[in-house]
Amino acid sequence: MAMLEIRGLRKQFGGVLAVRDLDFNLEESEILGLIGPNGAGKTTVFNLISGFLRPSAGEIRFRSESLAGYEPHQVCFKGITRTFQIVQPFRTLSVLENVMIGAFGQKRRYRLAKGKALEVLHFSGLLEMQDQEAGSLPIASQKRLELAKALATEPKLLLLDEVMAGLTATEIAEVLAMIRKIRDAGITLLLIEHVMHAVMSVSDRILVLHHGEKIAEGKPHEVAKDKRVLDAYLGENFMLEA
Amino acid sequence: MKFILPVLILLFLFLLPLFAGTYLLHLMILIFLYAYLGQSWNVLGGYAGQLSLGHATFLGLGAYTSTLLFIHLGVTPWLGMFVGAILAALCGVIIGFMSFHFGLKSHFFALATIAFAEIFRLFATSFQAVGGAQGLLIPLKGNDLYALQFVEKDPFYYIALIMVILCTGIVYLLQRSKFGFYFVAIRENEEAAKALGINTLRYKVLATGISAFLTALGGSFYAQYVLYIDPHGTFGVLNSVDIALRTIIGGTGTLLGPIVGSFVLSPLSEMIQTLIGVGRGGVYMMVYGAILMIVCIVMPNGVFPYIKRLWK
Fold first, then answer.
1. What are the structural domains, with CATH classification, of chain A?
2. Interface of B with A in 164-193 (CB under 8 A)
3. From A90, which residue of chain B is nearest by alpha-carbon distance?
4. Model confidence over B107-131: pLDDT tens digits?
5. pTM of the prediction?
């Protein structure tokens, strides 16, 4: 039984079909990369899964339970946490406090939440910045904080929306190492990413969206050779680095 | 080291009635009352970041409930103030739910809270059973602890001071709890708060309830101190503005903001009234307004954060 099952998912905004009859599965402890050109409907899929938008049709099942009608906080409570493409820090709070807010979902007491937050900060390499104001961090650290906040909720499935956009090659390598560590901790991941070599190297499978439709799904090296994917997104000169 | 200054200030405040005159004590009681009300407002307006301009609703509910219970049933205001607080909290929960369920934000929420306060004001004005436009006089009992009445200012001074300390203590604990963290998260970024599993509607309603409860206690104290309440003096929109203003000037969402704000504004408005006189076509209001504008321009985050920065 797949961890996440998406069946016939559809989202219509007025006359625009942002997501058309999408089907896919996500297995436990898998890393699935969701790619496609801008406007392909990737973030809409995230919004639908995380309860920020309601599907026009179709079904989302998490561990065989339908998520229909769930509010975002209920989806998070079930074990699915998402991050945002544009970082959403609690600006005037310290890095530690930001992460504690995530931790309070599972840990009711101040001391326990702080302990959990420190553990996550250590894991994400933000420990030295714990007292800094979140709004004043450089972008790479803000992206990392976004991940740390989500991790503190102790998710079973993590939805990461472009956590590598705008980062340098070194920073991307660090995030990739973190993503692998997260998976090794038993957390399933769904990634939206535009940094191709990164998402291709870290994902077990890739799903390509174009105009809200799935045009390919499979192992990274298979998808990278797919004619429709090359036409729609990657371009014919795309070469997957070995 | 850190505790020396606060302890000295508190000691001074506790000893003040020994050598202060009646007028100074009156002024201090007003400062404490508004610091208390500002601190209560701070829970919703400061920490949870929902701009209420209708806290007169809760102040009035507290004042009217304890007063009516005392006049008609002889219930001690010590108990009556808590009945009023529970009533105000319920009312706050209803107002909060109705506003936040329909997604009212910032100035739209502020407008809704003003409207609710006006409903209560008009109701109190036109309903004779609660005194109508003339208001209610609390029967004088002289020095009577049961009736929460005192001829001297000293007892009121101490009650008000302790109320400020307790309320600040509650807010301090709140600030360090899950509730406080969730309130601030909602203020800073509601979408991100939802994504991290926070039921934002529930916590905004909760903040309104807590804030209303605390405010109503202050309303009962006000009634006992003045011994006369009327619709305008309790449910009036100016009260709502006065409560919010103390905290906004002092620094919203900070523990000491409401207290600093009240120490700055309450004497200021008194002094300007004394210096210029209330009679001259509201000139004092214009001066007061001008000073507020200058403070807002120089210290946009409030006086307390400004002082704190100078300190460092």
1. 1-76+155-166+180-242 (3.40.50.300), 80-154 (no CATH)
2. 176-178, 181-182, 184-185, 188-189, 191-193
3. B188
4. 899 999 999 999 999 999 999 989 8
5. 0.92
